[in-house]
Amino acid sequence: MTSATHSTLFPRVPDSADAVLEGLDPEQREVATALRGPVCVLAGAGTGKTRAITHRIAYGVRAGILQPSSVLAVTFTNRAAGEMRGRLRQLGAGGVQARTFHSAALRQLQYFWPKAVGGELPRLLERKVQLVAEAAARCRLRLDRNELRDVTSEIEWAKVTQTVPADYPAMVAKAQREAPRDPAEIAKVYETYEELKRERTVIDFEDVLLLTVGILQDRHDIADHVRRQYQHFVVDEYQDVSPLQQRLLDLWLGDRDSLCVVGDAGQTIYSFTGATPEHLLDFRTRHPGATVVKLVRDYRSTPQVVHLANGVLAQATGRAAEHRLDLVSQRDGGPEPAFVEYADEPAEAEGTARRVRDLIAAGVPAGEIAILYRVNAQSEVYEQALADAGVPYQLRGAERFFERPEVREAGVALRGAARAGGNDPLLDHADGLSAEVRAVLSTKGWHGEPPAGSGAVRDRWESLAALVRLAEDFERAKPGATLSDLVAELDERAAAQHAPTVQGVTLASLHSAKGLEWDAVFLVGLTEGMMPITYAKTPEQIEEERRLLYVGVTRARLHLTLSWSLSRSPGGRPGRRPTRFLNGLRSGSTGLGGRSAPGAPGGAGVWSGSGSTGGSGGDGRPAGVRRRPRGPARCRVCGKTLTAAGEMKLMRCDDCPSDMDEALYERLHDWRAARAREIGQPAYCVFTDRTLMAIAEAVPATEGELAGISGVGARKLGRFGAAVLDICAGGDGRAGDADGSRET
């Protein structure tokens, strides 16, 4: 056996029970050695909760106190369960079962069904949407794809909260839940869906839990069998347990108390799926003699990030706030969180992309950077900005903007209307491009007012609304533009974003970022109406939005930037306000008591992101940046003020005559394709089409002239500058090999 085998990939298995405890902090060690009676672990973000509970199980097994086959560790995702099994194997406790609630219940259901019911277990319905669609049709209701998704989600919520169809309308009212359709209609679809399942002898995932609960309640002999098998339970992410999952856990336990739960009420962000922190908050009431351990030593984030995270929750109200955990960072100090205010959304996206590019140039891997937003429809402007900056990216938990079904459908409709021109009656009363777009998209589900609540219908509306806003911006930048012009612009944007997926900066919603972490995190679009979201109306919903921001802050290890824009588009009225959740935490804002904050936690203040960052200081803020007016960009041909990013890159209006050297553009285009293949990245990561056009128009002869072209920053100048200048001078671009600017 070579020494390489004992790397971090293949750690040594501890040679004794006491060795399992080595390296644990005092609180983690207390968790690991608390093997009797009920145990409640309140674990903040980044405090090593998985480490604590896996070492607890392993210590019990290695000490001979727990039999591996008698332990069931339950979590919420297959990824988390797999990680737990892997850690337990490394600690010498490989026989322990670590599963999700559904996986554990399904195994029991498959085993006991022949004995409890007889015959084979009904087929498991992988996707219930089609059956919900049939149920709606039987009820004479027409639901589009997004409405089907939302009604399906409502049925799932009803089942995990143990709500039968007849009680659904009353339960929705009691929970102050925004239903996507009339609650009576959904109740009827729900009832019909259940009838269809019985007719076809199929069950869904919620039935797996419901049927297991039913068998364990009705058959005491089977319940005793399960309790003899599993005598010790561990539940991770306990704040996300639904009433149905809690009922199943109670039946597994019986009258025993050998239970360890781990959770953080401050990270409850999935109540819309039926999750509730009440079971965690009431644990000590239900188990008066429970051992309670708090994990507050944060090993993930710097003191500056942790201070801000604590500040976000310090203003919280409600039951969860009463049990909040004040984290204590165990890391060395780092840069202060940056609070950045931009004039408009495009400026925010472009400024974020510049700062991302600067971090990558400073040595932060692209895969260790994330841009997090509240809703997926916000991704498009950041996809575009990163593409323009030549930064590779990947989306998590969502399709790329132009690949979303509703956006593709809208594109087809707009293209058809553009071809029909004046012959399309839909456009008879539409005055101007944006009005035409609104008329076309109204047939695809867009309306002037957003739908109530969240869900697929809201997501679809947000995507279509983003297209409407893009059309409005395009019309302002190009008065007299036609639908055909807009379709061409959309095609160009889509083409730039259909590059192969590569390892790069993560774009994700705050919900899909839960459980993940990065060296650098950008929290963007933090304005009232987006954070908290407009449809969060009740105090409980507002507090969940606050916790969502807290989750976002605690994803960052070292670098954290929080930003917002004062208006939606360039030149718009600057009427937006930054989220109330940052009041008292950033310079110039006031807290709940009305006192002005002298600065952000640790001294970070707000700086304007309307101009160039001018580099970064050692504390993570741009060096020497001050709020200053920026003169308008003007067309170098006609002198008109430019507002569109693409036109400002070329420094001329799109419809002004171009003096581009076509042959030079083709040579640059061919060189870019070859260079992209060499470095294994999409072509836009070298230079975008617009930047190549700008180079071919300017024909720079020196590094200074090339650096003055938008889209050519210091990093790209050093990497590709020599080759580009060689091509502009009539060469073949190989000069980059001679001066070392090419990477090997």
Percent helix range: 40-55%
Cα distance spanning the termini: 34 Å
Please tell me the overall pLDDT: 82
Radius of gyration over C-alpha positions, nearest whole angstrom = 29 Å
Q: What structural category do the secondary elements indicate? A: alpha/beta
| Regions with little confidence, pLDDT below 50 for 5+ residues | 1-10, 496-502, 592-604, 610-631, 737-744
Helix run count: 29
Topology summary:
Layout: H1 17-20, H2 26-33, E1 39-43, H3 49-62, E2 71-75, H4 78-90, E3 97-100, H5 101-116, E4 123-124, H6 129-138, H7 145-160, H8 168-174, H9 183-200, E5 202-203, H10 205-218, H11 220-229, E6 232-235, H12 243-253, E7 259-263, H13 278-281, H14 283-286, E8 291-295, E9 297-298, H15 303-314, H16 319-322, E10 328-329, E11 338-344, H17 345-361, E12 369-373, H18 379-388, E13 393-396, H19 405-420, H20 433-441, H21 456-477, H22 483-496, E14 505-509, E15 518-523, H23 539-553, E16 556-567, E17 606-608, E18 633-634, E19 641-642, H24 645-650, H25 662-679, H26 689-698, H27 703-707, H28 714-728, H29 735-738
Parallel strand pairs: 1-7, 1-8, 2-3, 2-6, 4-5, 6-7, 9-10, 11-16, 11-17, 12-14, 12-15, 13-14, 15-16
Antiparallel strand pairs: 18-19
Helix pairs in contact: 2-3, 5-10, 6-9, 10-11, 10-12, 15-23, 17-18, 19-22, 20-21, 25-26
A few lines on this structure:
The protein has 29 helices and 19 strands. The radius of gyration is 29 Å and the shape is globular.
Would you give an account of this structure?
This protein is an alpha/beta fold. The protein is 44% helix and 11% strand. The protein contains 29 helices and 19 strands. Strands 13-14-12-15-16-11-17 form a 7-stranded parallel β-sheet, sandwiched between helices. β15 (518-523), α23 and β16 (556-567) form a beta-alpha-beta unit. α15 packs antiparallel against α23. The protein is globular and about 85 Å long. The two termini are 34 Å apart. Mean pLDDT is 82; it is low at 1-10, 496-502, 592-604, 610-631 and 737-744.
